């Protein structure tokens, strides 16, 4: 691959990595924040580390814009969240497995009670959420990248965690100098008071399903371990 092309793809990913479900959220409907040290620690304990990913992966610090918690709202889909309390959040590094991917980031929110997390899941994790995933990708257009979404589907990754859902967006990203077929997967997992989101993307070909399942299982074990009351 030519160095200039690799750099352009890296620049596209720098924005792509931050395009998560919360990216186009309506702030007024977000859960209320009452963060505690214990809640934050529990969220941080859920995160994937570079050592989980194997050889060839690299990590970069998350952007400041990605440091907030999960929000399941976007234009046209605004499930009620303001009656729920978030006690901790954490965001992983931006991981990169190669020139075309996979690219991986994780975001976790911990809520005051398991009931609150179940309530948010019931309200927010619905078919309409795939449109929010697509809108988060469209945030790239503000960076001069034209986004054409060709399909929105779900993926079956098996019975992982207490609750799970996976959305896939297939899109073409176009700049004046390149066109990139892009697979953009969002895996949501929940257990107890915790909901976490894995964002996995790759240019030209789909991220390997077995790899996604393996990563989801690691995270599911971490959020299923419980933790001290916050």
List strands and helices in order, with pairings.
Blueprint: H1 3-16, E1 32-33, H2 37-45, E2 58-60, E3 85-91, E4 94-96, E5 103-111, H3 114-124, H4 129-138, E6 146-154, E7 163-175, E8 178-191, E9 194-203, H5 209-223
Parallel strand pairs: 1-3
Antiparallel strand pairs: 2-4, 3-5, 4-5, 5-9, 6-7, 7-8, 8-9
Provide the descriptors you would attach to this structure in a database record.
9 strands; Protein Transport Mog1p, Chain A; alpha+beta; disordered N terminus; disordered C terminus; nine-stranded mixed sheet; 230 residues
Query: Strand percentage, roughly?
Result: 25-35%
What is the number of strand segments?
9
What is the gyration radius calculated from CA atoms?
17 Å
What pattern of helices and strands is seen along the backbone?
Answer: HEHEEEEHHEEEEH
What does this structure look like?
The chain has 230 residues and is of the alpha+beta class. The protein has a single domain, classed as 3-Layer(aba) Sandwich (Protein Transport Mog1p, Chain A), CATH 3.40.1000. Helix content is 26%, strand content 30%. It has helices spanning 3-16, 37-45, 114-124, 129-138, 209-223, and strands at 32-33, 58-60, 85-91, 94-96, 103-111, 146-154, 163-175, 178-191, 194-203. The termini are far apart.
Could you give a quick summary of the protein structure above?
The chain is of the alpha+beta class. The chain has one domain (3-223): 3-Layer(aba) Sandwich (Protein Transport Mog1p, Chain A), CATH 3.40.1000.
């Amino acid at each position: 691959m030519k160095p200039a092309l690799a750099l352009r793809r890296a620049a596209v990913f720098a924005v792509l990595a931050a395009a998560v479900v919360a990216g186009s959220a309506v702030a007024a409907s977000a859960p209320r924040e009452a963060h505690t040290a214990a809640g934050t620690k529990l969220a941080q304990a859920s995160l994937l580390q570079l050592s989980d990913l194997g050889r060839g992966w690299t990590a970069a610090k998350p952007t400041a814009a990605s440091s907030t918690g999960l929000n399941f709202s976007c234009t046209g889909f605004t499930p009620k969240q303001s009656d729920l309390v978030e006690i901790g959040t954490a965001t992983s590094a931006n991981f990169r497995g190669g020139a075309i991917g996979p690219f991986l980031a994780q975001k976790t929110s911990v809520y005051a009670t398991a009931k609150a997390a179940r309530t948010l899941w019931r309200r927010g994790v619905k078919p309409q959420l795939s449109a929010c995933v697509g809108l988060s990708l469209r945030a790239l257009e503000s960076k001069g990248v034209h986004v054409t979404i060709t399909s929105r589907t779900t993926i079956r990754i098996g019975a992982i965690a207490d609750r799970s859902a996976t959305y896939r967006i297939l899109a073409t990203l176009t700049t004046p100098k390149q066109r990139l077929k892009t697979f953009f997967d969002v895996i949501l997992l929940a257990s107890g008071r915790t909901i976490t989101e894995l964002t996995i993307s790759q240019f030209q070909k789909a991220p390997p399903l077995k790899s996604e399942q393996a990563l989801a299982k690691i995270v599911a074990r971490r959020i299923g371990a419980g933790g001290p009351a916050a």
